[in-house]
Write a structure and sequence with these properties.
With 289 residues, the protein is an alpha/beta fold. It is 43% helix and 23% strand. It contains ten helices and eleven strands. Strands 3, 4, 5, 6, 9, 10 and 11 form a seven-stranded mixed beta sheet that branches.
């Protein structure tokens, strides 16, 4: 079944000429966007784009469909603007904290849409670590925070999920496995390792601890995902990263799924210090829709 996110993705692919760039624009992972596009074409029974190594271009039929999608999305925006003009403008402020990758790849596009729906609400976004998100929430210094793998009792509003993936130098013995092959967490943890944290407590070390495994040979620990990819390219070691952190340029890298998939979820959680404000409720309702 196709929804508004599919049509926004369709238009974004046409505008950017790339599924990867379009995925970032609408707040999806590259693999989810590829699956969504394939699902749309299957549902419509027609090819809308031709895929080339460097770009994705609409077919003749795709151009017609995209034109109609723009008309539909513009009409929806007109309806929303009409409704907003007819009702009193909701005014207020909203403070949100998130770790950078989720803020950039998922939350920012949603906040741009929120600003169109509620221009009277001033939104302040903070880029912090996952530990800092919880500290700010507990102190009541923010209205909403993005939390990793939230406990059920936190009444979280689900945002999305992604997989943890192994990244190895292309000349590594494990990287010589055929396309589509996987690597187990156990054998990955036996290798010289680049431990990347992204400033989060959920990382390869914590995942290993949950599985009863330990990293045998940590060659270097870095905060930035980009630093980890550079070190892997240089052959310093292998690493384990969330899917949404993968670089667009993967020359010298082999990305492999884990034999037993491990995923992380992220969700918006309100501060426990007070009931959600009208501004916070408006954002949560928009995301739920």
């Amino acid at each position: 079944m196709m929804n508004l996110m599919h049509w926004r993705l369709l238009v974004a692919v046409a505008d950017h000429g790339s599924i990867t760039a379009a995925a970032e624009r609408v707040g999806m992972t590259q693999s989810a966007a590829s699956q969504a596009m394939a699902g749309m074409e299957a549902a419509l029974g027609a090819q809308l784009f031709t895929r080339a190594p460097r770009n994705t271009l609409p077919t003749a039929l795709g151009l017609s469909v995209i034109e109609q999608a723009r008309v539909m999305l513009n009409a929806l925006q007109t309806i929303r603007s009409t409704v907003n003009q007819a009702r009193p403008m909701l005014r207020g402020s909203l403070r949100i904290a998130s770790f950078p990758k989720v803020l950039a790849k998922f939350l920012t596009p949603q906040l741009q849409r929120f600003a169109q729906l509620y221009p009277g609400i001033e939104v302040t976004s903070l880029e912090v670590t996952d530990n800092e998100v919880n500290t700010l929430l507990d102190a009541g210094l923010i209205d909403l925070g993005v939390v990793l793998n939230p406990a059920p009792e936190r009444n979280a509003s689900f945002l999305g999920r992604d997989l943890w993936l192994a990244v190895l130098p292309t000349n590594h013995p494990l990287a010589q496995r055929p396309a589509g092959a996987s690597v187990s967490l156990e054998e990955l943890f036996q290798q010289p390792f680049v431990l990347a944290t992204g400033g989060c407590t959920a990382n390869a070390r914590s995942l290993g601890a949950e599985a009863g495994l330990a990293l045998r040979d940590i060659r270097v620990q870095v905060r930035e995902w980009s630093s980890a990819f550079s070190l892997v390219r240089e052959g310093v070691g292998v690493t384990l990263v969330p899917e949404m952190t993968l670089p667009i340029q993967r020359l010298g890298l082999r990305v492999m799924p884990l034999t037993v998939p491990v995923q992380r979820e992220f969700a918006l959680v309100a501060t426990p210090q007070r009931s959600p404000s009208s501004s916070a409720r408006a954002l949560l309702q928009m995301l739920a829709e």
